[in-house]
Amino acid sequence: MQFSRCLLSFVTASLSLFLCWESLSCSVSAREVPVSMGIELAMRDAEQALAEEADLEDSQATDEAVSVDETTMTDDRAVTSGVAEDDAVEDGVAEGTEAAASSDSESTPAEDAILSTTENKDAPDAKVVLPPDQEGVAHTSDTTGIKNVFTPAATVVPARAIDLFGYPNSALAVAEMYDDLVKAMNTRRVTNLYAQWKRYNSSVLNRTRAKVTGSELNGRSRLRWYEQLYREPLSSVMEVENYTRSAYTNFSGSAADIIRGIRDARVKMDLAPSQIATNAYLVSTPEEALAVLATALDQAVLLQKRALAPLTDAEVKMLANELFSVFTSSVRNGHTLPMISRAKYLVDVMDKMDRGSMYDAAELLLPITNQDFLDQLARVNTSALESLDHGNNKIYRIPTAAGDILIGGPEDNVWNLDAIANVLCVIDLGGNDTYIEGICNVNRPVFVVLDLGQGNDKYTATRPGVQGSSILGVSLWYNEGGNNSYSARSLAQGSTIGGVGILIDNAGDDSYVAFFRGQGTALYGLGLMIDRAGSDDYRSAMLAQGLGQPGGFAAIVDVAGNDHYYVGGYYTDSYPEHPGYDGWGQGIGTGIRGVACGGIGLLLEGEGDDTYEYDYFAHGGGYWMGVGAARDFAGNDRRLGATLLAYNKQPRTEKRWQRFSNGFGCHYAMGYLFDDAGNDSYNGTIMGLGMAWDLSAGFLVDFDGTDVFEATGGLTQGVGAEGSIGVLMAYRGEKTYRGSQQGYASSKLTYHSQYDCGANFSFVVDHGGTDVYGCRARNNAMSQRGMATGFVIDRPTTEELAALEAEQQRKAEEALAAAEAAKLKAQQAAQARAEAAKKADKAHVANGQQTARSVPNQPAPQPNPQQQQQRGWLFGNPRYPR
Asked: For the purposes of burial, counting CB atoms within 10 Å of the CB of 857, is it exposed (0-12), middle (13-18) or buried (19 or more)?
């Protein structure tokens, strides 16, 4: 603080001297205005720096007051040991550029086709080339024409209730299990260790906020929502349960609902509020629909330009030419990159973009997918439009200010999308169509494809940024129906780097194949893949199916059908001590180690009996300060780790072995898996099923059904390790827990000391049902597992407890009634015996009297002396003592 005040005084004095010199050497002119403004700005910046330093000192003082003694902690301890750190230092832009160029030379033949340029400079896939005099010049694109309130008039669609899906009252169920967990921690007196864990983790967050920290951890792309969850890990499961239900409600609905979901995502991605004030376009004729579509496309192009406006033209060219090679074609594993220094520089450049404008463009385009609007487009009269020949097909053209709208008839059309210059939108009215390529990037900043028929369509591509995907652009593809097949190499099917990519398929049994970075993925952008009906097949080798990387929000949403998901089977995993393949998909929020913090990744699955195949790091998890979640709302589901066959559907060359899955967190991350109904199975090999590693938290929550938790390897089923929290919650239903790892808390800590992080926390909470535990934990009891911070809580549900009490009351009442009946019966028997005795006595007396009358003169018998003596004692004869 003292140094900062001195600095402020020095700056003030220097600037004052400079102003005096200007006034002496120059006459009064317009030049004085910028000088005085410079002084004001400098003073304001200095004051702001002083205030920020004061805030930082206050924050540090607060941290020191509430935390344990951290004098022995070092930055090295906050970084995972045993994994090689990045040896590369910031080598500058020049060396990074050379590395990017060299990476291209190592690409595979298929990637060579992806990276090749075209001779047509106007083609969408052409490399960006700027005139020499424009290098480094900031964007001056005119974005003043963007309308914040888009017309025609907006209609307000009420939000859908979020209790329509999944297990009823799931929020209350999670809260109930959470309360039991807290009570158990209080009972076992380990809440102080949990508080210590939170303090230590908060200190890790606080000291790694800068871009350069001296370790792999840094503050690039860090999300406030992630920090909120990370600082209160146990209660975070209630927050994410509510959010995943809300997100599914929105993304599975109409365009207005999807927009609502995107606005929620903006908040979680720390973006400014939406500038679009409409979620539906009201049109009554095809002509009106076409006019609105043209305006929406023009406005979307302006918004894309606004998003890139903070960058210079040279920076835009650099991003356009390098993003794919640095973040995709050169990548061979999921956790890091071969060009770390260059990647950090590219991330810093993308961070300057106005990403909110990209989201605005998505909101602007989505209402054209409303059914009423599409019905009007389907009725367009093509006879009045300009016709063109495209291969063997006749198509129709509508020019707009930003580009062309092309319309194809109901016949079977073949669309060679990248062979058409200056096209922003393609509308096909039916037939079994074929779509080839269709990239979206800065050369084609907006690209919309609408297939309005029920035909079985085929989409094929080898280039990046296709099938509703983009690189620094905005792409939206929609298919109305039919059994469609989508096949692409990389960056496809609702994926993006630096922009927006959305793919919506409304119906049909569809097949999706994207080798790498496909099916709902995002890096510094928004990636959505939505399938509303049909039994679908999703297949990818790595980085796929709801994967959010730094600055990215990504989701794959399937509403109905018996679906099959596959990720993995190609790239050998990066852990040499174990066999298997990398996966990295199915609801994963991951950072890039040594580069930036993670984004948000979601997999949201509705109805149907679904099968999930996955290899390493998959199915509801977080890595490197990321947040990932998977949720299945209904059906009997199978979770198979590892994949059964290789990616090419041939026998695996690696032994079946899987690591990190089913609600996991790894390296300062948060991961969640929820299943609402059905008889489900959960499999893997090691480190999964509500498991966390290295100051992370992982949750698996199952809400009903007869379920089997099959993973029996080490660190599975509610286990935290290396200072982490692993939780498995099961609510109702008969559960079988195989193996013996449930809720086991080891005392082993190698990455962090127990003095710093408190302990490992391992919990299983099971409500209801008659369950079978491989560790032999008892039903309706709390069992300690390992250290005091590991336990299994098994108890009946409220209804079961009430039923048990009612049964016990019924049995008690029955026992009482039986006792009363027995007593009455005994009394009745005694009374009967007494009456019988009386009758016998009367009969005896009567018989004696009758005998006496029959023998009147017989003398009475005389007792012998002994009998006389006894009678005297019995009847009080004074001659005999008593």
From this structure: exposed
- What is the per-residue pLDDT for 835? 87
Q: Which of 223, 235, 226, 317 is nearest to 271 (CA)?
A: 223
The radius of gyration of the chain from alpha carbons, rounded to an integer in Å, stands at 38
Beta carbons of 629 and 549 less than 8 angstroms apart: no
CA distance 538 to 567: 8
List strand residue ranges (DSSP E) for 606-683, in order. 611-614, 616-618, 621-623, 627-632, 638-641, 659-661, 664-666, 670-675, 681-682
Alpha-carbon span 218 to 199, nearest angstrom: 19
Contact call for residues 598 and 226 (beta carbons, < 8 A): yes
| 427-435: average pLDDT | 97
638: which strand partners?
Answer: 611, 681
Angstrom distance (rounded) from CA 617 to CA 623: 8
- The DSSP secondary-structure symbol of 327 reads I
- What are 649's two structure tokens? 């559907």
Distance (Å, whole) CA 118 – CA 844: 131
The Cα 620–Cα 611 span in angstroms is 14
Q: Peptide bond preceding 233: is omega within 30 degrees of 0, i.e. cis?
A: no
- Under the banding of pLDDT at 50, 70 and 90, the label for residue 285 is very high
State whether the Cα torsion 703-707-711-717 is positive or negative.
positive
Mean pLDDT on 675-689: 97
Answer yes or no: are the C-beta atoms of 607 and 647 closer than 8 Å: no
Q: What is the pLDDT of residues 784-822, one digit of tens each?
A: 999 999 999 999 987 788 887 888 889 999 999 999 999
pLDDT digits 0-9 by tens, 615-646: 999 999 999 999 999 999 999 999 999 999 99
CA pair distance 627, 284, nearest whole angstrom: 43
Q: Do residues 592 and 333 lie in contact, with contact meaning Cβ atoms separated by under 8 Å?
A: no
Which one-letter amino acid corresponds to residue 94?
A
Backbone angles phi, psi at 26, to 5 degrees: -130, 150
Beta bridge partners of 735: 707
Element of type H or E holding 450: strand 446-451
Pairing mode, strands 707-709 and 735-737: parallel
How many whole angstroms separate alpha carbon 133 and alpha carbon 152? 42
Within 13 A of 830's CA, how many CA atoms are on the CB side? 6
Let me know: does 453 contact 429? Beta carbons within 8 Å.
yes
**Sign of dihedral through CA atoms 755, 756, 762, 763?**
positive
**Strand ranges for 321-422 from DSSP E:** 386-390, 393-399, 404-408, 414-416
Q: Is the link from the previous residue into 152 a cis peptide, with omega within 30 of 0?
A: yes
Q: What is the pLDDT of residue 36?
A: 29
Task: Give the residue, 39 or 530, on which the prediction is more confident.
Answer: 530
Condensed to tens digits (0 to 9), the pLDDT of residues 487-537 reads 999 999 999 999 999 999 999 999 999 999 999 999 999 999 999 999 999
CB atoms inside a 10 Å sphere around CB 826: 10
For residues 321 and 103, what is the distance between their CA atoms, to the nearest angstrom?
13
Short-list 352, 349, 367, 235, CA closest to 297: 367
Give mean pLDDT, residues 6-28: 40
Strands 393-399 and 404-408: antiparallel
Q: Is residue 119 pLDDT above 50, yes or no? A: no
